[in-house]
Structure prediction request, 116 residues.
Amino acid sequence: MSSPEPDTDSARGLARLEGYLLWSAEVEQARRRARRFTDELPWLTTAQREDVERVYMADRAAASRLMLARIASRAGELREEYSARYRRLRARCVAAAVVCAGTAGGACTVVTYLAR
Prediction:
C-alpha cells in the first residue's frame, strides 16, 4: 500500500487549515455579536452577562455547525451530479468524434473509389 502523494497531503493540510481559520473567525464573530447583544442589556450583572454571552455563543455555534453540515452535504450532491454530467458529456463527445471520423473516412473512401 503506497502513501498519499505529497501534493494530496499538502492540499488536505491546507483545507484543514482553511477550515480551522474559518471556524475561528465564526467563533470570534459569535463572541462579538454576543457582546454586542449583552451591551444592549445594561441591567445584567456580570455573571448574568457572562451566562447570556455563553448561551448566545453556544446557540450561534450550533446554528453554524448545522449550516456547514447542510452546505457540505449539498456540495457533495453537486459534485456527484456534475461528475455524472461530465461523464455523459465526455461519452457524447467521444461518440460524436467517432461518428465524424467514420463519416470522414467513409467520404474519403467514396471519393477515392469514384476517382478511379
The chain has a mean pLDDT of 91. Residues 6-115 form one domain. Residues 21 and 39 are 27 Å apart (CA to CA).
